[in-house]
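dumping this here before i forget
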Amino acid sequence: MRPEMRQLLTPRMIQSMEILQLPLALLEERIEQELQSNPVLEMSEGETDFAAIAEQSDIPQRDDRSEGEHALVVRDDNGHAADFERLERISDYFENEEFNTNGSNFRQQGSFDGERDKKMDAMANTAARGVTLQEHLMGQWAFVECSPEVRQAGEALLNYIDPEGYIRTPFETVRAESKSAPTLESLTEALGLIQTLEPSGVGARTLTECLLIQLRALEDDEDLSEGHDFELEKSLIRDHFNDLKMNRYPQISKRLGRSIDDIKSAVRRLGRLHPHPGKQIGGDDAPAIIPDAVIYWDDETGRYEIKMARDPSENMSISAMYRKWLKDRTKDKKTREFLANNVRNARWLIESIEQRKSTIHRVIRAVVDAQREFFEKGFEFLRPLPMIGVADQLGIHVATVSRAVSEKWIQTPRGVFPLRRFFSQGTQSADGEDMAWGAVQEKLKAIISNEDRQNPLNDDEIVEKLKSQGIDIARRTVAKYRKILNIPTSRQRREY
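structure:
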């Protein structure tokens, strides 16, 4: 035995930290899960009254049926005839529904004065799942004329098409993992046929092969080729691809005996090709960004104000019926313990969500006050804002600030940005002015955008340009920021 002091996190604290870190989309999913697993939680008509959640037991039971819904039993008299009449009307209603060709919605042929199946309505109005790349190619492969062995080999290969449209798996692996064990000859023949499918370029094993396939398709299409033979483009891809990536136009011009203008025209035509043809079909949609707050200028207060996004828990409440049951001493002990546990968990969840909203609002307020010049003038006026400074200002732990800004977005007069972007270290200019690294990057972008395209600045010259503006940073820092901003080297930026 020994006396000791340890810091332990209670389940409630752990839940609060988890809720704080969730973005709005995941918070909605978490609330949906809690509504399904906790029977005492419900979605009420009005906003949640957090002050009244505690111990109210005299609230009348709320009828959860929405407007227009009725109980299945209309009357107990007359042999439930009214029930059967209503069910018959529902059946007639759906018999008169005619779905359109894509099945995504329907057109009503007759009128109906009874209930509608809400789940069926929701399913009918849900957008259909997009066709995947494999499904798109399999649909074309079914119409390709070939022998049964080649058809099986093609079906095996199509399972190895990656989302970009490439087949990067060796034939030996395909043979070893395929049930039909196709021969190398049938795989080779099948690959040639797959490379004729749409979108053009699928089935390639390298970027060079992908571009050459697309060039051959353009050459075969008289409407697109306009009589052009694409021989220069093929030569650039097949024999001078590395020089092309390094922008070595004079060397290519000398070796091919073609003018730089001809090469530039060919490169422009190559720019119409797609390096990732598979992404033209299917693919996952980018997740929607839901700003946690909107920053706007208020003339009355004379400062930037914050409008928090609608909280998905605003209509959450604890069932009045179950609260009554909890206070009812006639209920058995196990039932009351079960309800007490769920009511406690529901209260913790609602309070954690409210605390999340309050904490995020306080952090955003600190950001807005510190970065006012950014909202007025742009990124070049972004100030250093370390998280530990905001934590000290708000009297909370720096880990709490980190969780509060994780995957959160704010809508500002200058666009929608991740909240974390406003937190960074920085440097001091020669005038003693604090500048965030993001502001230095913006100045670097401005210098490169105004350079002479035929004689671009190298990293040492950019260092000198920044120094003339009072910003003294190392050459390796300039190279690092170029890579972050996806800005190529001076050789690759040069225009001929």
